[in-house]
Specification:
- This protein has 6 helices and 12 strands.
- With 226 residues, the chain is of the alpha/beta class.
- The protein has one domain: Rossmann fold.
- Strands 5-11-10-6-12 form a 5-stranded mixed barrel, surrounded by 5 helices. The chain has a two-stranded antiparallel ribbon with strand order 7-8.
- It is globular, with a radius of gyration of 17 Å.
Amino acid sequence: MIILACATERELREMLAGLEKPVENGAVRVAGCRILPCVTGVGPVAAGISAGEALARHPEATGMINAGICGSFDPERFPLGGICVARKEVWPEYGVRTDVETTPLDYPMFPDMELDAANELRLDPVFCAGEMNLRLPEAWSQGVSLTVAGVSGCPGRADFLRERYGAATENMEGFALALAARRRGIPFLEIRTVSNLAGERDKKKWNFRQAFASLRSVLPMMLEGA
């Protein structure tokens, strides 16, 4: 069984839209794949709590997919409505912040869990998709995803994060969910669609409709030929 974790009901609804999905004990069966829908709530704290609760209730879970919308730091590679896959998750707020930058702490979040860096999780989306009997389309761009508690509110902040971490996209739940999956030892995928440019707060320049429409295509494409 695969946990499908989305921050909001809307994101989850779009992910499952148009698919035959008979319910079996709270899970849905899509093309022979058993998926447990999970609304995590918004932000890393809510996501971490929800992931822990879901994994405790369902120790039989064999994988986790985090799906939803995101902001893009690079509109040429990751345009509005585009589908992007996280190949690394970074939590830039875990560290010591100054007026100039944030320096990661010297000690890990969990003393018994070694990460690539104290605030980084390297992901292997192609391998994890295979472990969950899913197909990852080659056309989907991959990049570094940042998880933040507060989204970039101005171009200057977005520019700093892009340059400091080589970031492609910005979200609010991915690192917490990836960490929960890593701690449980199950494969993890983070797939998001772009709704806005990071740092741009003028909602007239956002495109939720296009991002949500793209979400509807994610599961069918991953299940096709898998």
